[in-house]
C-alpha cells in the first residue's frame, strides 16, 4: 500500500519487514544491557567515520565501496534503536532528541563529502543534502500541526541512502564524473523537492480530515 495515499512509494515501506528480522538481535542486545541511546550514537559515529574516510582519502575506491555497507549497517542500527525504545521500555526524551539529531548529522556527514570529489558538482551535492534535511524537517513538523509523522517519498531517508549507495559504487568502479552526475543529482534534488511537497500536503490533508 502506498503510504498516505501518495502516488509515489518509498523504500521506507520495507522497514516493517526489516524490523521483524532484527527483533531477535534486539532481544539479545537488551539482555546484554545495550541501550537504544548507545545504538543511536554508534550509528552517528559510524556515519561520521565513513564520511571522513571518503573526504580524507579523496574518495578512494575502497571508501566509496564501503558506503553501501555502512548505509545498510546504519539502517539496521536505526531500526534496532527504535525497537529497543518502543518494545523494551527504553524510550526517553533524550533518546528522541538523539535520534533526530543523529539522523541529520549522519546524513550530512555521509553525503556532503561527495562535494569534494573532482568533477562532481559541489553545488548540486549541497542542494541534495540541504533538501534532504528539509524533507526530514517536514516529517517532524507535521507532528507540530497535529498530524502524524510523514514518510512519503519519492526520496525519503531510505531512498537517499539507496541513491547515494549506488552513486558511490558507480564512482568507485571508475566511471568519471561529468554530465551524467549533474543529471542524476539534479533529478535527486527534484525528487527531494517533491518529497517535501508530498509530506506537507499529506500532513495538511490529515489535519483537515
Q: How many DSSP H or I helices?
A: 7
* Strand residue content: under 5%
> In the CATH hierarchy, what is the superfamily?
CDP-alcohol phosphotransferase transmembrane (TM) domain
**What is the overall pLDDT average?**
92
CATH class: Mainly Alpha
Poorly predicted ranges:
1-8
CATH topology: Four Helix Bundle (Hemerythrin (Met), subunit A)
SSE topology string: HHHHHHH
Helix coverage percent:
over 70%
Ends apart, CA distance between termini: 20 Å
Computed over alpha carbons, the radius of gyration is 17 Å
* Number of strand elements: 0
Structural class: mainly alpha
Number of domains: 1
Q: What sort of overall outline do the alpha carbons produce when their principal axes are compared?
A: globular
Proper CATH architecture: Up-down Bundle
The major β-sheet equals: none
Question: What does the model show?
Answer:
The protein is an all-alpha fold and 209 residues long. The protein has one domain: CDP-alcohol phosphotransferase transmembrane (TM) domain (Four Helix Bundle (Hemerythrin (Met), subunit A), Up-down Bundle), CATH 1.20.120.1760. The chain contains seven helices and no strands. It has helices spanning 15-31, 36-56, 61-87, 93-111, 122-144, 157-172, 179-208. The chain is globular. The chain starts with 14 loop residues before the first helix and ends with a helix. 38% of the residues are buried.
Amino acid at each position: 500500500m502506498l503510504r498516505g495515499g501518495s502516488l509515489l512509494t518509498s523504500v521506507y515501506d520495507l522497514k516493517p519487514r526489516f524490523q521483524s528480522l532484527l527483533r531477535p538481535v534486539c532481544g539479545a542486545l537488551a539482555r546484554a544491557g545495550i541501550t537504544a541511546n548507545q545504538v543511536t550514537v554508534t550509528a552517528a559515529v559510524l556515519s561520521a567515520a565513513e564520511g571522513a574516510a571518503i573526504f580524507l582519502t579523496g574518495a578512494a575506491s575502497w571508501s566509496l565501496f564501503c558506503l553501501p555497507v555502512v548505509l545498510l549497517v546504519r539502517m539496521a542500527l536505526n531500526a534496532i534503536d527504535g525497537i529497543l525504545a518502543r518494545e523494551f521500555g527504553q524510550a526517553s526524551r533524550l533518546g528522541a532528541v538523539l535520534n533526530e539529531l543523529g539522523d541529520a548529522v549522519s546524513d550530512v556527514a555521509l553525503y556532503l563529502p561527495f562535494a569534494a570529489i573532482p568533477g562532481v558538482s559541489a553545488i548540486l551535492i549541497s542542494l541534495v543534502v540541504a533538501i534532504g534535511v528539509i524533507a526530514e524537517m517536514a516529517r517532524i513538523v507535521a507532528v507540530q500541526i497535529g498530524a502524524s509523522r510523514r514518510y512519503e517519498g519519492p526520496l525519503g531517508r531510505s531512498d537517499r541512502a539507496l541513491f547515494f549507495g549506488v552513486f558511490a559504487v558507480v564512482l568507485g568502479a571508475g566511471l568519471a564524473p561529468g554530465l551524467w552526475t549533474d543529471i542524476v543529482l539534479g533529478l535527486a534534488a527534484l525528487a527531494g523537492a517533491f518529497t517535501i511537497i508530498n509530506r506537507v500536503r499529506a500532513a495538511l490533508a490529515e489535519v483537515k480530515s
